[in-house]
Each structure stands twice: as C-alpha cells, then as structure tokens.
Amino acid sequence: ITWDLIVIALSLLIDEAIKIVDLKHEELRKAISKLDKWKQDIKDQFIVMGNSAGQGRKFRQDLENQIMSEIVRIYKQKTSDAIGLNMSTSTHIEAEKIARSAYDESIGSQPPNGDNILKYVYDINRYYLEIALEKVQLSKDNIVNDQISKLKIIMNDCIKQAINVVKKPNLCRNVKEVYIEIAKQLDVVLPGFTASEMIGIAAEIGNPDQFIQAFQQIESSQREMEKRIDILRGEFEDVATESCKTTIRTRLGCQTCCPTCGAKCDNPELSHENHRSTEHIAMAFKGVKHHNINTPTLELCYQKLQTGSFILKNERFTPRIKYYEARAPSWLNDLDSKFQNGTLRSESYPPPEQRRAWMAVRNALVAHYKMTDHTSYDNNMYPSSIHSLPPEYIPKWK
Fold first, then answer.
1. CA pair distance 168, 178, nearest whole angstrom
2. DSSP letters along 46-68, please?
3. Is the CB of residue 350 less than 8 Å from the CB of residue 282?
4. Which stretches of 146-274 are assigned E, i.e. beta strand?
5. Residue 123 and which of 18, 52, 99, 323 are 20 to 30 A apart at CA?
6. What residue ranges do the domains of the chain occupy?
7. Rg, C-alpha atoms of the chain
8. Would the keyword Signal be found if you checked this record's keyword annotation (predicted)?
9. CA 310 to chain centre
10. d(CA 356, CA 381)
11. How many angstroms separate the Cα of 133 from the Cα of each of 120, 126, 129?
C-alpha cells in the first residue's frame, strides 16, 4: 500500500510540475504552495494509518474543507448566474432611465451637486454604472441572501449524506472506497461537486467502529461551517457586484462619447454606425477653450456648426462641421439634426441647468483643463450666488 501511495503521489506531483513550466510567476508561486499542501496532506494521512480513530478525524477534517470549498465555488457561480438573469430583465436599469437619472442628478441637479457634475464630466460611463448599481442594490442583496441560505441548506444535506454513507454496513474497510461513495452521493445533492485525489488515500480501516465514531463528529461542525460561510459573505457580494457590472454595461449600450462635449451615446441599437445623444452639454465641460485666450467655450457643440470654427492643435476647421466630417463622422448626423431643429440652435449659450452646473464646478474644471476663467459672468445667466468647488476638488466615487 505504501509503495502504491508513493507512486500516486509522485505521479500527481510530476503532472503538476509539468503544468508549472508554462505558468507565470504568481501562478507558479500558487502552484508550489498547492504542492506543499498536497505533500502535507499525504504525510498526515500516512501518519494516522493504523489508527482508525485518527483516520476518521483526518478524513472528517479533509471532507469538511472540501465540502466548504466546493459548495462555495458552485454557489458563487450560481450567484453570478442569478444576478445576470435578474439584471438582464430589470426595469431599473433601462438605458433611457439611467441616462435621465444621470443628467438630472448631476447637470440638472438643483441646487447643483458639484460632486455628481464632475463625475458626469470626468467619466460619464463610470457614473452611469454607479447610478445603475445603486438602483439594483436591493435586488442584488436579496439574491446574495437567497443563495447563501440555499448554500447552508445544501451544505447540511451534504453532511447528512456523508454520515449515511459512513454508517453503511461493511463499507468502512478502506478510506478510499468510503470517499468514492461519499463523492457519488454529494454529486447528487450538489451537482458539479468535484472529487479530489488528495482525500481518502487507499488505506485499510482496522477498526470501523472507531473510524465511524470519529467521523460522526462532523455533525457538531455544522454550526462552525455556517459561521465560515457568513465570513465569506463579502466574497459573494463581490461576485454579485461584478456580475451586475457586466450585465449593466451590456444594457447601457454604446460607451462612445461626443468628442467635443463628452455626452454619452444613447443609440439603443446593438450595432450602429451613427452615434447620438439626447443631452449634449457645453463644450467647456470637456475642456474646449477659445483659441489664444484659453477661456472656457460655453457653447453647445451643435451651435455655430455652420458658422463657427474649431481649432485642434494647429489645425483649423471652418466651418465647425468640417471637424466632424473629418474626425468624427459618426456624430455628424446627430449634431446636424440638432443644428437644424435643436431648441437652442440659434443661441450661443447652454440651457439654464448647464449654466448653473458650470458655476458649481468652474473652479475645478478651469484648473483641471488648464484654462483661463472669464473675468466676469452675466449674473442673470450665470448666478454668482452658486458656490463653486475648489480647484483641487476630486469627486468621491462609490
């Protein structure tokens, strides 16, 4: 038996060593650590050979750990799948609703919320994602709670099945045979359960009664195992959050932004050539400034489309539409349509909410984009009573 065990161990170590050759440094470190653990597991099982009570205790400990490991792995995947299914149909994260909320809670906020405005301006896709996650937080928490509750029930069922197998007459003669039978039953209770070569080596059980008595202590471990699951709740929440993000990004659609104002494309078509946005914003929010004097350009990108100029480094585009024709043709239809039909197409200033928003963050954006602020503002258009965030302000992401 000893020679057979050594051959099995060496064979596993050699197979693992071959795989190690192609692994990166960090994976190599993890693999070596895993090998050390296997080596210790085999050694510990050798030590208790001939001691049936010791075999029972060691087998119980190893099986507890594997049940924990497998059930956590399987239920993390179940949590991810359940989240994906729920988020794919959730009415809380429809693209139009999130777009509306993002604009209203930042640019359109009253009084202006400078923190949200900067999020909208600096990284609009991240801000959309943040809002969407807030709206599905309750659903996500409910799914995590449900999956952990189911996990605990299945874990206890696994323990009962293991005890029933060990109690079977004439089975407790060989540790390996006991483990093989338990693994079969666990795969029924917990589909996807993967047996381990490192548990239950082919060792004879001299005194089955002592082995069974020692193994049955697993019943008293149930509460402790449940506590271990509770400690891992944070890992389940992380899995749920990542699954939420993946599905939300898909549902929020195109992440392309207008090159001159930063507005997010809200074209719902999965595959499209032309981008469009309901809410274009003043170009100053994107850092566009007047040539030579470097003051913020407080115009919408479609205003003066056929009359104004756009200067990019040393290249001048006159009229402004030529810039979009040459550099951003996918936005041209949308901007031309708004130039023809937009509410403020004939003006040279943004809507009231954007003017208020600018006053709330102008110090921060002037510093961020290295602009030169206007020496004065028309108080009727740009209320001076609005508190402006300091130049060094950094938004607080969640």
1. 10
2. HHTTT-HHHHHHHHHHHHHHHHH
3. yes
4. none
5. 323
6. 1-47, 92-135+256-368
7. 32
8. yes
9. 39
10. 8
11. 15, 11, 6
As a whole number of angstroms, the distance between CA 108 and CA 262 comes to 16
Say yes or no to pLDDT of 16 above 80: no
| CB distance 112 to 386 below 8 Å | yes
| 185 phi and psi angles, rounded to 5 deg | -70, -35
Token couple for 251: 């549902």
The amino acid at 152? K
- Judged by DSSP in three states, 174 sits in strand
Structure-block tokens of residue 259: 């090159």
**Count of beta carbons in the 10 Å neighbourhood of residue 390:** 10
In this prediction, residue 268 has a pLDDT band, given cuts at 50, 70 and 90, of confident
Name beta bridge partners: 296: 289
The tokens 């589909």 sit on which residue?
A: 191
Tokens (6 digits) for 161: 């099945």
Backbone angles phi, psi at 389, to 5 degrees: -60, 150
- Closest of 314, 57, 311, 42 to residue 199, by C-alpha: 42
Q: Are 229 and 151 in contact (CB under 8 A)?
A: yes
Instruction: Tell me the C-alpha distance between 105 and 112, whole Å.
Output: 9
Distance in angstroms (rounded) separating the CA atoms of residues 322 and 229: 61
What whole-number distance in Å separates Cα of residue 325 and Cα of residue 222?
68
Read off the pTM. 0.81
Pairing of strands 310-312, 315-317: antiparallel
Q: SS3 for 389?
A: coil
Calpha distance 337→335 (Å, rounded): 5
CA pseudo-torsion sign 344, 348, 352, 354: positive
**How confident is residue 314, by pLDDT bands cut at 50, 70 and 90?**
confident
Distance CA 294, CA 282 (A): 15
Task: Give the count of beta carbons closer than 10 Å to the beta carbon of residue 20.
Answer: 15
AA letter at 327: R
> 46-62: per-residue pLDDT in tens?
445 557 888 889 899 99
Among 179, 198, 193, 180, smallest CA distance to 36 is for 198
Q: DSSP character for 264?
A: B
Residue type, 149: S
